[in-house]
Amino acid sequence: GAVVSQHPSRVICKSGTSVKIECRSxxxxxxxxxxxxxxxxxxxMLMATSNEGSKATYEQGVEKDKFLINHAxxxxxxxxxxxxxxxxxxxxxxxxxxAGEGTEAFFGQGTRLTVV
Amino acid sequence: xxxVEQNSGPLSVPEGAIASLNCTYSDRGSQSFFWYRQYSGKSxxxxxxxxxxxxxxxxxxxxxxxxxSQYVSLLIRDSQPSDSATYLCAVMPGGYQxxxxxxxxxxxxIP
Lengths: 116, 111
Prior knowledge:
The structure holds 2 protein chains of 2 kinds. Chain A is mainly beta. In chain A, 0% of the residues lie in helices and 51% in strands. Chain A is built from no helices and 11 strands. In chain A, strands 2, 4, 5, 6, 9, 10 and 11 form a 7-stranded mixed β-sheet that branches. A 4-stranded antiparallel β-sheet of chain A has the order 1-3-8-7, with no helix packed on it. Chain A is globular. The model of chain A has no long low-confidence stretch (mean pLDDT 91). Chain B is mostly beta strands. Chain B contains no helices and 11 strands. Chain B has strands spanning 4-5, 11-14, 19-25, 30-38, 45-50, 54-58, 61-66, 71-76, 85-93, 100-101, 105-110. The chains are: A mainly beta, B mainly beta. Chain A binds chain B through residues 1, 6, 32, 34, 42-44, 46, 49, 91, 93, 95, 97, 101-102, 104-110, 112, and chain B through 31-32, 34, 36, 41-46, 49, 51, 88, 92, 94-95, 97-99, 101-104.
């Protein structure tokens, strides 16, 4: 399958600081990228969908000013958690898919964020 | 009604047996269906995709789709302890980009 690289895999930050997570498609052009959040023993919760060159579409209840998403190129999307608080601690996962209906989405390795 | 429903399990099967994982979905217009495997603390890994009614086989894995009954299943033959993981069913409606995931079924293969 296609390769999606997510970085960093783990990050610990202090409350009030911002953290940027990168998601790169290594061997295909990702017209669409998705950002998920997953709590322990829970399913994936879609946060937002981003298309290259346009603003991200956020799911209901997700603060767009807190979770800034940029999809500046066909191979890179970033999620910035601004003014992080302990309740933002979670497992964040990106996935990417290329153009075309029905094509599979491939996941990055995920980022374990801990806010202290 | 949840969009994609799965039994959370755990489903326990002995090593060498067939594990059967089931998933139902509510959107009759759904066109694309996926099974992902997720190990604890890791991100999901795509196992199978299926788009038309019937069976699709890949090694020890067989995906089955029945659009009339709105269910999709995954069979794992000759289950191995390394298959122990949570299996996520994902559904994508036609014309949409968003994939909806089920809660996942935890599979335990007992040696």
